[in-house]
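HOLO CASE FILE
Compound: uridine-5'-diphosphate
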Amino acid sequence: MQIYDGLPASFDPDAYDMIVVGAGYAGAVCARRLAETAGFRVAVLERRGHIAGNAYDFVNDAGILVHEYGPHIYHTTDDRVHEFLSRFTEWTDYQHKVLANIHGTLVPVPFNHTSLKLAFGDKRGEELYAKLVDVFGQNKKVPIMDLREKNDPDLAEVADYVYENVFLYYTMKQWGQTPDEIDPSVTGRVPVFIGDDDRYFPGATHQGMPAEGYTKLFEHMLNHDLIDVFVNVDARSIIEMDENTVKLCGHVYGGEVVYTGPLDELFGLDLGALPYRTLDMRFETLDVDQFQPVATVNYTTSEDFTRITEFKLMTGQVVPGKTTVMREYSKAYTPGSGETPYYAILDPENTELYQRYRARVEDVTNFHLVGRLAEYRYYDMDAVVDSALTLSDELISCHS
Ligand code: FAD
Ligand code: UDP
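Model generated. Tokens follow.
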């Protein structure tokens, strides 16, 4: 792999069998697989100054490995994804735990057996727990919106408490809407857990952190003789779409194009902007060994920010006397402002707009959309890798 800063004047797309836009998971997985399996020469164009997309991490001035675009914890139940990524990294055995700060009391989230006792007291907590086990069974996950629909006074007591104290204010901060107004799959990511497992991702068969960090994982994945990476390159400067073809540098391109950026941007937002939420990440380095008891504390009833993450507690890095924390402030994304579109806002109207953009590239048979932005989905890292492996399979079978 060569990494170039900018696109040289001599850049010739025809020297490559595939052009990949974006060096996040979606792009890097496709680049690696087509290079090593189909013998493709691949150019990866990335508009940021670095690889790894939103998973990018780096060592800050205090010597602490931090995640520039928000805390990333690897977790999956997909063996194929895990085997693929494990070729490029060792993993540390980190099990993510989150506490919600509910009016000053720290309570495990997902809300579980322990949380019930902390919220309702031991006696009432056990009674309510017994009821939940009775109705749903042990070690089951119940989305809050499903729990709210149950017509039972005990279950309503739990549902009302969790809705009010865990979901309502946090969701208002994160989305500017109540939990009833947003897509149920979003709050369904953090279901009530009827059991004692206090991990954020109970049931993930593989969980951990890349031993040397995410950026190193990407360096290894992109490290192939047939892959060139060009950073600080906005691919829109060379791409033009028409009904049946994609042009690069003014000429119809015959190779494959994998696009992982926002789809509306490719068309100058001419049908309207796809709505997103963005985040302000505010980092602070403190002269203490440890700031909080677990890596992430969610502020579910107070503060303007949603959560505080302390990186050392996720990575396991030992740096005595110093720690870096980060607060996340969510707001509406303004296209063209330089902000990062972090979260697609899933609703029928936005999905319909996305589909109208998507229809425009459907007949361009060598142009492929993959990833959290290009598919306008709320994908975790493993889901993006899965989607990119599937697209790679299709491309490999077309070219073999
Ligand atoms: P991205 O990582 O966004 O990569 C796309 C790349 O394309 C970007 O680098 C972008 O600069 C580039 N690009 C876009 N347009 C252009 C263009 N015109 N020209 C050139 N380059 C372009 N997942 C988990 O599994 N666990 C977590 O704990 C977790 N935490 C998260 C926390 C936050 C705050 C956020 C926002 C996401 C989190 N995720 C997590 C999700 C994870 O970040 C994504 O699933 C994953 O990074 C998406 O990969 P991608 O390649 O689709 O997109
Ligand atoms: N959520 C909440 N309170 C919490 C945790 C999550 O209200 O303590 C809701 C909120 O709407 C959030 C969604 O559940 O956006 C998904 O949470 P998750 O932690 O998966 O979000 P991410 O890490 O992707 O930002």
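CASE NOTES: The radius of gyration is 23 Å. The pocket of flavin-adenine dinucleotide (ligand 1) is lined by residues 21-27, 45-48, 53-55, 70-73, 234-236, 260-261, 279, 342, 371-373, 379-382, 384 (CB under 6 Å).
CLOSED: yes
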